[in-house]
Design a protein that fits this description.
By secondary structure, the chain is mostly helical. It is built from ten helices and no strands. 81% of the residues lie in helices and 0% in strands. The longest helix is centred in the C-terminal third of the chain and has 28 residues.
Amino acid sequence: NYGSIRGLGSLGYMLAGVAVGFIADVFGLDGAMFATYAVLLVIAFGISFMFPKYETNESDNDNKEKKANAGQFKQLIKNKKFLTCLSLTLLLPCVVDSAMNYGGNHLTVTLGGPASSISLMTFCNVLPEVIFLIFALKVINKTGFKKFYLFVAIMTCLRFAIYAFIPNQYAFLAASVVHCLCVAISTVASL
């Protein structure tokens, strides 16, 4: 269940985001976020050397399998259901993530929130993600892909309507909770 693994990664991201928000309140926005993330990236880089080595062997079976799969790309590109799911998978999370690049700025500058509200935004985005991804596969299998994609599209439109028409930092943070649905599409549903 990839959702559980992805959920734990999101938990680490959320905890770091919350910590950075409070560090930014103390030291300002100029360097605290970048310094904190740089330290975390150095730690992650060090951990990557602990991964087990993966060795590949080319055998006759591998060559036969490659030849058998050679024409399947054309078949995949002609599959309308696949292309619809791929388009939605790319469109919904990309739109949300692009908008959220400016979420912290909007929250602090336009809506007048403190710098720590940036970490609250991360918390409101990611905590539901951590929880939902654990059982997202069951929800998607129960509702079906089409209904789930439609539900996510509707919730995303509602989320952006709240962002656009309700100039309140708490409404903004509450609407951010549905972020977990787009993450479920781009990770769990895609697999």
